[in-house]
Amino acid sequence: MTAALKSKLRRKNRLMTAGRVEEANSLAEHIGKDITQCCKKLISLIDGRVDAKGMWAVVRQLTGRQQDTHQVDGVTAESLNEHYATISTDSKYQAPARKQSVAQSQSNLPNMELTSEWRMFRLLDKLRSTAAGLDQMPAWFLRLGAPVFYKPLTRLFNLSIATSTVPVQWKVARIRTIPKVSLPSCNADFRPISVTQF
What we know:
single chain, mainly alpha, 2 domains, two-stranded antiparallel ribbon, 8 helices, elongated
């Protein structure tokens, strides 16, 4: 809120009090346009495709809503880890029997093509804009680098499938907790959101 806007709002209130409704309504339209311009200018400084967090901070600032920073007694990172581990573990789980799905000969691996280079290039070239993963690599960077990245990524994917192994980095996730209710009071009041590499 700028000093000029505050001055116009005071003038509009004086006009309304004096019964000069038409002038007050005209001034209200000008105030609305000025506020819209200020908001547009503030939002244009942030690129929402790259900095979603910054964009939401600006939206909260403009709408007057504050991010909920309510602290919950007894809820810590360790207690949340234990809670999620307890509810996501099945004590009766039995690992399925392994199936032979790919030839074991190492000589077959270099020639094997489960995912083609052309398909990998098209996937990278048509990535949708999403939030960056743990590596903080935005989708636009992968799209621009598709001509360079598609060959090594194709080889990596094919080797992963052929050897029935997944790189450890692809299994790592950062858990963000989002409150399910407005005033959370225990571990169960938080929803875990996994941020993965892909």
